[in-house]
Amino acid sequence: MLKLPSMHDFSRDARLLIAVTGILAISFFGLYALLRVIYVLRLGYGPEYVGIFSATGALTYMSMGVPSGALGARLGTRKAMLIGASIVVVGMILLPLTEFTPPALRDAWPFFSQIILTVGWSMFNVNLVPALMASTTEWNRNSAYALSSAFRETGTLVGTFVGGLLPGMFASLFVQSLDDPAPYRLALWVGAALAAIALIPLRRIKEAAAPVAKTHASQSRGPAPVLPIALMAIYIFIRHAGWATCQSFCNAYMDADLHLSTSAIGLITSVVQVVAIVASLLTPRMMARYSNGGALLITTVGSALGLLPLGLVPHWTAAGIGRIGYQIATAMWIPVLQVFQMELVDAEWRALTYGITSMAMGLGFGTLSLAGGYIIAALGYRSVFLIGAGLEIVAAVVLWAILRKQRDAVVATSPEPVS
């Protein structure tokens, strides 16, 4: 029987990387992700603007994928992550300054802050995956990525819960209305301060993955694995487009259509995160039972099933149930995908590979976010969730074809049994 992952199973650098993931998740995936869209809505913008705002970050992430991987290969993953995390803090500080910018710049300022934030996040996140790969061994690798995902979900839980409470606390403290942007601005600055704390353990990490130029100076690289990377990029593009529907618009849907308070949205999201934490810890069991490819397929179909209640039933209970299924699948999908991608190529191609697939993530997310705002304006929020479910099913079909091709290749190269 497989035991749950434990921090004692890993090296010092792996533990620090996992801890940094959790700390940044409190701010980036929790507090900031919950409040940034609501803050933009309180500034007086509509769903079309929210869609463009989300797409700006996604398209920036797409364009930074390969440069972030190349930077990590040149400077080393630690230095690239440290620079990236510092830029993330700056980006988080910038968004709440929107109210203080000159009127001529006000409409563009959130986009500017989103670009800065995403440049930093790309540099950090793209290099985190190969850094963790280099800090683990074959026997504890799946558990390390699963525990990293659990820390990310736990940080998201804490950040979401705190983020749901902070605007009300600031509104009460300074006698402000929750319909005004000021309480959300103050809460977002708390998120920036929390993100800055992650720089402390990040500075203590040694170079987990040496720059490629040094590590492989005495040996030439093998040929680039173009076909496997291209096929995975297609799958990830479609999969991430479907994933973007809830990530970009779920909070706005519960705020604008279901008329839930920020604290209620935070509470629902927190409950969802508790389930996701458990799912992350159980991921190594699923990977061992179904293989990494099989687990990837199961979680892709699971995302589609999670989006269906959001699109079919206009009630907060359906939104909660749908988000639980969606988040369980996402919590399991991320570590499985990371291991699957890293094992797909040789070590010298890992940072660049994750950079390329990160481009596909950003392009898929950005395309749907950009189109989603206009779809919502024309057809309503629930229509975009049904589109997301359909995209997840298409992604599952593409992944099934990839896995079948891999299996056929293994059979073709296996030696024939000696009679």
**Shape call:** globular
How do the SSEs run, as a string of H and E?
HHHHHHHHHHHHHH
Strand content: under 5%
CATH class: Mainly Alpha
State mean pLDDT (0 to 100 scale). Answer: 83
CATH architecture: Up-down Bundle
The helical percent reads: over 70%
What is the CATH superfamily label?
MFS general substrate transporter like domains
- What Rg is obtained from the alpha carbons, in whole angstroms? 21 Å
Task: Please give the alpha-carbon distance between the first and last residues.
Answer: 37 Å
List unreliable stretches of 5+ residues. 209-220
As for the number of domains, it is 1
Strand segment count: 0
> What is the structural class?
mainly alpha
**CATH fold annotation:** Growth Hormone, Chain: A
Q: Treating each run of at least 4 consecutive H or I residues as one helix, how many helices?
A: 14
Largest sheet: none
